[in-house]
Structure to design on (150 residues):
């Protein structure tokens, strides 16, 4: 598994499904939940080169999902992230590996704490966050909120 950063131009191509040689996108990529963040990134002239969106690539190098930061760390050093995989790529440990790599990237670039949330019915995501060392900090409105010191 590897994370490949996505810049504004690539985000625009992904949204438009303008796949080119070497892109290696799974036919289901991007999945529906990724479109809004990709559209937002595509609309920016410049994106943060580190605290941005990343394509999750499987062991064959095929883009099967996304990992992304909601921006750079805030004044407390906290960075928020999210992730997701196409259905065909789930259950293989890719999400856990992507979160581990994303947290490594964040810590290497000055983040002190990471936060994430997921729907309380999303048992797979709850397990990924727990395996990634995040601790549940609260439940509210059907969502579970997690944090981890980096």
């Amino acid at each position: 598994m590897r994370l490949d950063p996505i810049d504004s131009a690539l985000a625009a191509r992904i949204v438009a499904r303008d796949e080119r040689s070497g892109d290696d996108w799974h036919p289901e990529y991007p999945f529906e939940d990724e479109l809004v963040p990709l559209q937002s990134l595509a609309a920016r002239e410049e994106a943060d080169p580190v605290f941005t969106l990343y394509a999750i690539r499987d062991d064959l190098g095929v883009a099967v999902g996304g990992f992304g930061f909601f921006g750079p760390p805030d004044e407390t050093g906290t960075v928020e992230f999210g992730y997701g995989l196409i259905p065909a790529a789930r259950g293989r440990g890719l999400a856990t590996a992507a979160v581990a790599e994303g947290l490594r990237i964040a810590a290497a670039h000055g983040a002190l704490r990471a936060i994430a949330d997921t729907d309380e019915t999303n048992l797979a995501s709850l397990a990924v966050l727990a395996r990634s060392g995040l601790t549940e900090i609260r439940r509210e409105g059907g969502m579970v909120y997690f944090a981890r010191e980096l």
Summary: The chain has a mean pLDDT of 97. The chain has one domain: 2-149.
